[in-house]
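Why this split exists: single-chain examples teach little about how molecules sit against one another. For that reason, every record in the complexes split bundles all components of an assembly together and asks for one structure covering all of them. Below is a record exactly as it appears in the raw files.
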Amino acid sequence: MSQLKNDLLLRTLRGEKTERTPVWMMRQAGRYLPDYMKLKEKYSFFERCQTPELATEITIQPVEQVGVDAAIIFSDILVVPQAMGLEVEMIEGKGPLLPHPIKNQKDLQRLCLPDVEASLGYVFDALRLTKKTLDGRVPLIGFAGAPWTLLCYMVQGKGSKTFDEAKAFCYTQPETAHRLLQMITDTTIAYLKGQAKAGADVVQIFDSWGGLLGPDDFEELSLRYIRQIVTALKDEVLTIIFAKGAWSSLEGMAATGAHGLGIDWCIRPQMARQLAGPNVTLQGNFDPAKLMSPIPVIEREVNAMMDAFKGTRHIANLGHGILPEVPVDHARAFVNAVKNF
Amino acid sequence: MSQLKNDLLLRTLRGEKTERTPVWMMRQAGRYLPDYMKLKEKYSFFERCQTPELATEITIQPVEQVGVDAAIIFSDILVVPQAMGLEVEMIEGKGPLLPHPIKNQKDLQRLCLPDVEASLGYVFDALRLTKKTLDGRVPLIGFAGAPWTLLCYMVQGKGSKTFDEAKAFCYTQPETAHRLLQMITDTTIAYLKGQAKAGADVVQIFDSWGGLLGPDDFEELSLRYIRQIVTALKDEVLTIIFAKGAWSSLEGMAATGAHGLGIDWCIRPQMARQLAGPNVTLQGNFDPAKLMSPIPVIEREVNAMMDAFKGTRHIANLGHGILPEVPVDHARAFVNAVKNF
């Protein structure tokens, strides 16, 4: 492996002082990029994920076209339920559909603890090819969904604002829920270890629906499993937890020993720092919808964000994924404003 | 008007000591009640809203069947955009649809500042008839949507997880956005004054999408208009603000002088009290999905919630609307657990 030419992200996650703040964007390899859209028209979602050459090309596009300080492998959190034996479809314009969701203990028999090399080896291949193609330009981030967020989809069967069915499943069948969460956790640990071995410098755990749970339920249904994952990985790879909306558990997330915590735009950076304590890097927290603003407004707002984080361990990012409608030069203005701060 | 036999809600909102905590549930007049479903099968949504006899019957059902300490008038926040001249449809199983949403300054010409007696008099009639039929059993709550939440629907044209179009509208056309917010505010003040005159003892302002905004945007796009409404009303009627998810602005909301603030289950009561200060009643914050749990679990969780609020001004409620799937005896168990605490 070549020496990294830009290791700002890694040094920031380790708590070292850096010459400037690193920047990347969640969902940066995505629909706002015209070159991504061309590939999207030609290949299905799973063809793009499962063909290492396509995944690599998509992963590297924002590094070359927007100038971010890290690449994040093109994939999806639902490859894990798929590897565990659940059918997953991606419906254009509607999102994921799992036609045979988990509803009770008997349904768990349809799931397996997969051999990740056999079932998710295509992700490892994509990481290896991306790592080689990046040739040390920037670090490579791998990722997985948090067990709670994956349970949401595996039980509800599709996206939802509130995932009430998934929550009701946990409240009425707690033993089955915990068995399922443990199966997902065990699979995820093997999967993320494989990602680290294949070249991921950092792994991020996405708990997109962590914010639907109250603080006690977040501890019980989400954080205790994330903690297992972080503990299993922290000597092998740098880890970031992004539990959207779960601000009230920042202290508990910091106590896992994760190197970074993502925060969204609904919490002030000062408050997040107060809750998380000094020994973790914070990542965020620009409102993705604000990238629709005129460029001078984006620049002003980025400066305000950077000011609010100033002097603490910080990776500049959005507070959620970039929107498909964002013009590429607005994304570039965001990245450049961070770099020029 | 008869003297109120149960004025726990009003005394709690005024900060007086009461013999026990009052309890009601958001969306308590709704689909979890079989008697409501019977009326829903026979009459369209707007027939139910606009026929005072139907609205009254629906409003009183949970008082008689579940034993709540307040009635909330059966209506919808979108009657205000409708009165302002926008077409609003309720699509069964899908939610609201506004087929001609506001996209630019020119579209504002399609809106008016309505004579609320003429266009929303049916709500006032329903309040008067409900008040009379309640005959002093419990207080009557009126309500309106917050200007920001109404703008979300008026611009996006339908429900959304993130209301990105509505946010982009505000970020790219701020002057038009503020003109629209002011028109909604002026209409809402007249509307809520009319509700108070027609017999509402309390009015609640629902900012269902306040939590999509960062703290500065919440101040700019939501709270400054809510403040106008509370200021205009506070000598005429008791006021509650419920801005779901906007926990980081609890201090600012308390400073409006509102009598009560709703909170959801994602914030601990102690933290909410610390942010809101001592001079306002807190309302909430049971996770609605938890009403799917077995009754002994509901009782245990209600006790935990009551303990967490103990000794402070508190109205027991859910942190969001009751779900249609909740069995009626679970709703009753919630209410009784509060009463028996």
